[in-house]
């Protein structure tokens, strides 16, 4: 049977500690050349909605040790509106019922069969959180207990779950531009994590004295600035442009997720004219030579050095997502889903064939 | 509803003339920069079966005019056995029920929604046939009526269907190494096409006097040789190495499918050692500068010149498959499938989500 799982199923099947564990195991495989990941590609074309583009995004990964290959697909209507001072990248829920479209397909490395298909939302959030969690595990001070976070959305939640999974966090201070959002988020996360999560009115108030400074926004502009950097701080980001270059320069040690410089972009001719500037902005690498920065997998296997003292400023940039993460986290989900009771079981024959493709 | 179609459904929904028509329309869009295709990627890793590798292959394409984006995925167990004098690339049907695994996912460019999921077999065969059919339409002599074909498999069938769709073919002569296969194929195709299809005992017997020489094998070695080239012949191939370089040199005009030189290969460390030679062999371009040969879309819009005289030797190399073909042919299938009665209708909500991915 091929399993069709829902986000709700994935949510039940995957805890943050499990997500971090399986990612850690998989990154060792990646560092040793036994796991593989195919750079994300974005195919971008015009769509009916004004000021929007259609993006068909895909990324693949295979982890032989875990026995799983994954393809993650997004079929997005994307806009780039201004929110306050910053440009954000916004996916429009344009599918029937005002829904988004993202899928993960999991395959067996041993016989090729399609194991499961599911929406990507919960898994995508967990793997971003889990990856930044590993950044904290390997780079933040062991005694880190205060988190400042910029952002109060879907990603911010899993960032906090991850921080709490790898450090004994006592307090979180959260800033995001809209008061209502940050207060709602603080109340919810406080309940979920069982620690104090406080909404604050200025980003500086979130960052001052933070042991771990987390950026978890949808911004395409800088949101974390150099004056906020303090000795011993670990700074962590889910997207390249969040941290301004001057702040990165103050870091003693920067580790990135992967050396892929940017997604492969293929665009129709007209889109190339209209969107290149924004896309370039979004992928701007400034003065950093991303191709030569140490990566999280290298850090995990000890090939790249970690924090050398409690005074060091460390930084983890989750610079690009990997299809490989979905193979890893997908393997963990599948393992438990097989115990039964989850999702819809469809005949595998629907997704296989008796003719040589 | 998201449609789950079978190969049988696709077979009923798509005739070769329709396939050729929609591909022709889509190639115009591609030539004009309004359609886009993302180079195929092969992620290759070890698997349990001895002497085999696991390959997770994907390719994407978007045709805004037809309103469809496509991702085609193959999850293959691949072997490279010797068959007679040649090395072939063989996909092992290792999935439950001895089946292969290839999928096409179709999405709406207008709202992103998942329109359909189906096995890739029939569509993949039709688009290869249709593409080579367009090569014949734009390059072969108008009065071509004799086809010689090397190969008697799944692909050979759609090659003949395509030739008959664009030229008034009177006779086909077929050679493949195993007598039983070629005789069975000849009988079947003769019935299907309503013309004489004759199995012959030597490749030379198939090629001598042929107006159109078709290669449709699974060989990774040369199978078509220079002495067989005749004035006025159109030579057509579904895979790079089929035609030997000396034969290509005799062509007055060579057109390829696409300028992508080869798939993007990502491999685990051990596979890189074991398989690179074979993979390189398979993608060998010899002395031809593939990046600068004219392409089928350019030929169709008149940017590349076609046949100049009845004496010219022309050649079409279907050098690489494109995700874009699946967007085009998929659009034609979807259009008719919507009329109802085909496949399984699943709730679109299973493949969409209410959280921002």
Q: Which whole number gives the mean pLDDT of chain A?
A: 92
In this structure, how is the largest beta sheet of chain A organized?
9 strands, mixed
Q: Ranges of chain A with pLDDT <50 over ≥5 residues? A: 280-284
The coarse overall form of chain A would be: globular
> How many structural units, i.e. domains of chain A?
2
C-alpha Rg of chain A (nearest Å): 20 Å
| Largest interface, chains and sizes | A-B, 82 and 82 residues
Intertermini distance of chain A: 21 Å
Put simply, the count of helices of chain A is 10
**Could you say what the CATH topology of the largest domain in chain A is called?**
Rossmann fold
CATH homologous superfamily classification of the largest domain in chain A: NAD(P)-binding Rossmann-like Domain
Would you identify the CATH architecture of the largest domain in chain A? 3-Layer(aba) Sandwich
Strand content of chain A: 25-35%
Helix-strand topology string of chain A: EHHEEEEEEEEHEHEHEHEEHEEHHEHE
Helix content range of chain A: 25-40%
Oligomer: homodimer
* Helix-strand category of chain A: alpha/beta
In the CATH scheme, the class of the largest domain in chain A would be: Alpha Beta
Number of strands of chain A: 18
């Amino acid at each position: 049977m091929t399993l069709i799982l829902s986000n709700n199923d994935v949510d039940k099947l995957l805890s943050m500690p499990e997500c971090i564990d399986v990612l850690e195991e998989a990154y060792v495989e990646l560092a040793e050349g036994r796991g593989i990941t195919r750079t994300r590609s974005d195919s971008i074309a015009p769509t009916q909605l004004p000021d929007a583009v259609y993006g068909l995004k895909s990324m693949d990964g295979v982890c032989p040790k875990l026995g799983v290959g994954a393809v993650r697909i997004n079929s997005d209507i994307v806009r780039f509106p201004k929110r306050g001072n910053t440009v954000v990248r916004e996916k429009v829920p344009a599918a029937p019922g005002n829904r988004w479209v993202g899928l993960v397909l999991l395959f067996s490395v041993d016989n090729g069969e399609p194991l499961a298909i599911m929406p990507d939302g919960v898994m995508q959030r967990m793997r971003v959180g889990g990856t930044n969690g590993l950044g904290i595990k390997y780079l933040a001070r062991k005694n880190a207990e205060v988190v400042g976070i910029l952002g109060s959305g879907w990603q911010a939640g899993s960032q906090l779950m991850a921080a709490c999974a790898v450090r004994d966090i006592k307090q979180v201070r959260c800033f995001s531009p809209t008061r209502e959002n940050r207060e709602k988020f603080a109340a919810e996360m406080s309940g979920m994590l069982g620690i104090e999560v406080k909404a604050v009115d200025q980003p500086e108030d979130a960052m001052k004295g933070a042991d771990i400074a987390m950026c978890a926004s949808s911004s395409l502009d800088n949101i974390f600035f150099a004056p906020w950097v303090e000795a011993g701080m670990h700074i962590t980001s889910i997207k390249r442009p969040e941290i301004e270059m001057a702040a990165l320069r103050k870091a003693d040690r920067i580790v990135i997720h992967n050396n892929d410089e940017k997604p492969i972009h293929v665009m129709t001719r007209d889109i190339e004219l209209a969107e290149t500037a924004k896309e370039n902005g979004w992928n701007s690498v400034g003065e950093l030579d991303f191709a030569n920065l140490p990566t999280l997998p290298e850090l995990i296997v000890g090939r790249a050095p970690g924090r050398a003292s409690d005074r060091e400023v460390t930084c983890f940039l989750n610079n690009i997502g990997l299809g490989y993460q979905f193979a890893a986290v997908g393997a963990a989900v599948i393992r438990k889903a097989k115990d039964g009771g989850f999702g819809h079981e469809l005949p595998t024959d629907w997704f296989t064939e008796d003719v040589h493709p």
